[in-house]
Amino acid sequence: MLVFLSYPQGLQAQNSHRLDSLYAVQSKLDREIAVLSQARDQAKIQKDNSYAELQLINRQVALRESMLEGLLSQMTALDEQINSTLAVIASLETDMGKIKEQYGKLMVVTYKALSKKNTGFYILSSKSVTQGYQRMQYFKAIQKMQESQLKLLQRTKAFLAQKKIVLDQQKVTKAQVVVTERIEREKVVSLKAEQKVLYDKLKADEAKLAKELQQSQAARAKLMQEINKELDRIRLAKNKVIKEGKKSEVDVINKLNKDFASNKGKLPWPIPMPSATVTRHFGRQTLPGSNTEIDVQGIDFTTGAGQTVRAIFGGVVESVMSIPGQGKMVIISHGTFYTVFANLNTVNVKAKDKVGELGPIGTARTDPASGETKLYFQLNQDKASLDPESWLVKKS
Q: If you write DSSP's letter for every residue of 76-134 in order, what string do you get?
């Protein structure tokens, strides 16, 4: 019996998995771009040609360029998938030809063996019972081979037809991605043109741009000063409890530390990601529109007005305070880990409250000057600032 020639099934499965991952990334980027578009619309309504709008459009450009890279990767993966399917079809067509050839040869052998007489004649004309039995087994074997080859031919034909349907679907998908990529490229060109116009307008009024940059830096510096002051106060109190506290209190702190640390990479986001996007990441970076470098201790989320903010892990509220011009701030301890939520509009917890994972803390604040709704989120372990995105569950 002829077996199928080998064809790249593993490669097809690998390509399918890769495409699924690319589609998931595209979906995530679509949601983030939608959030940014809404935030930018709010910023436009609030204030024309603002530094805040420039930051949002910069982020939109970056996301759309990531989208383009993803679409190009999709096209590459689809090309590989189409080529793989074509290879399978070619292999199946070769198999079909060989099966037909073998089936034809088998029919000729059968015809010659029978010489126009039926099998019963040959069995009955045997010289002995043994010879008759052998002839009967021979004819049964021929019949079985014929049936097997016929079934193999039918299965191969059906599988070939199925693969041709799959190929047609893959070509349709590729055509759709090509169209999407062209549209997305046009959007990037258009967005970059808007970006240049906005930057040129801001640049034309150097004093206005410098003032907005200075205000942004001053607000950030004030926020960091307040956060560090509060964290120092909380740490001193916590260290005193650890040094002088009862064994049961120390055990609780150690357990919280262990539980929090064991959930690295699995912690929920303080805002559900379909409702927000990260517009400033952790670490050292240059302020958009300037040559000024800043060291960002947390991350900024851009979201919609009135968005609920939630705890990422169970803990105790250590501090609730207001920062002039920047809304309210909440600090929660999880042993000697601390989560900081700043730029809140409303707060529905108070100091010493116990909160559970995903427990509501308050709502994000909309800046009356820029129209932006943002949340600043920071994660510390004792005195060290940690990159929150490495602790939160991967976005889907």
A: HHHHHHHHHHHHHHHHHHHHHHHHHHHHHHHHHHHHHHHTTS-HHHHHHT-SSHHHHHH
